[in-house]
Amino acid sequence: MDKAKLCEWVFHILKKNPQTHLHTIETEIRQQTDEYDRRDVLTLHEVVWDLLLQGVLAPGKNSLNLNLPFVHVTEYGARCLEEGSILLHDPDGYVAHLLEICGDGVNPLVIESVREGLLDYLAGRPAAAVVMLARAAEDLYDHLCVVLIENARRLGRSIQRLEQSARGSPERYRAILRALTARRLPATLEEQIEPCLTGLSILIQLVRTSDGRPRHPVVERDTALAYLLLFPDQCRIVYDLIARLKEEVGA
């Protein structure tokens, strides 16, 4: 059984039994699927160990069983399981979800930046996670800018402000927003534009000064978590916009 599939089973079991034992987890998986065999035990140990390092699990079950292989779901872990953000603890699953909703045309730089950002988050480095996620957001902005400029040129429209705006600057965000409001877009997409681009702009401004220079962000773990949860939908909206703009000029 591959690790991603095993993660799903472990998350399912932990949601039902937040205080348990490693062997109990293994027994439940054996009972519920024929895909698990003896060779998977080491992968299962890796999954549990990852969750311990990430703070989803902690050693011990109760006052009489305080040590491994007894484990319990932490308060943070329970929140992740309840809110569905447990997906963040499965980097391959997170990237698969991103590709599922955005399509296979996502820039590899975006994929790898998001993957590295998620690994940084899981390693307890929220600032590094935000830096990597902001790099992915900048790439989305760059791609959108290129398409907007090409679109305007083909339609004979002036887009000088966007062409002259600095990468990562608030001016670029405003220029993109102005350029998009001049387009005829579906109402459902139009109402998503400003919240999406505002969120990406705020993310970028965490790692860049007003004149575009890099800076080190100061962020809490929960803040980084929120940005990671929002990013797949933001990415989807930007790629939907790009597809729509290309359709407009028959590109």
CATH architecture of the largest domain: Up-down Bundle
The number of distinct helices, counting runs of at least 4 residues, comes to 11
Q: β content, as a range?
A: under 5%
Rg, nearest Å: 22 Å
* Sheet with the most strands: spatial strand order: 1-3-2
- Main sheet record: 3 strands, antiparallel
The overall number of domains is: 2
Q: Give the N-terminus to C-terminus distance in angstroms.
A: 43 Å
Q: Please state the average pLDDT score.
A: 87
Give me the secondary-structure topology.
Blueprint: H1 3-16, E1 19-21, H2 22-32, H3 41-53, E2 57-59, E3 70-73, H4 75-83, H5 91-102, H6 108-122, H7 126-155, H8 160-164, H9 170-181, H10 187-207, H11 221-248
Helix pairs in contact: 1-3, 5-6, 5-11, 6-7, 6-11, 7-9, 7-10, 7-11, 9-10, 10-11
Q: Can you describe this structure in just a few lines?
A:
The chain is mainly alpha-helical and 251 residues long. The protein has helices at residues 3-16, 22-32, 41-53, 75-83, 91-102, 108-122, 126-155, 160-164, 170-181, 187-207, 221-248, and strands spanning 19-21, 57-59, 70-73.
Which descriptors apply to this entry?
mainly alpha, Four Helix Bundle (Hemerythrin (Met), subunit A), 2 domains, 251 residues, three-stranded antiparallel sheet, Arc Repressor Mutant, subunit A
Could you characterize what this model shows?
This protein has 251 residues and is mainly alpha-helical. The chain has two domains: 3-88, Winged helix-like DNA-binding domain superfamily/Winged helix DNA-binding domain (Arc Repressor Mutant, subunit A, Orthogonal Bundle); 91-248, Four Helix Bundle (Hemerythrin (Met), subunit A) (Up-down Bundle). Helix content is 68%, strand content 4%. It has eleven helices and three strands, in the order H-E-H-H-E-E-H-H-H-H-H-H-H-H. A three-stranded antiparallel sheet has the order 1-3-2. Helix 5 (91-102) packs parallel to helix 11. The two termini are 43 Å apart.
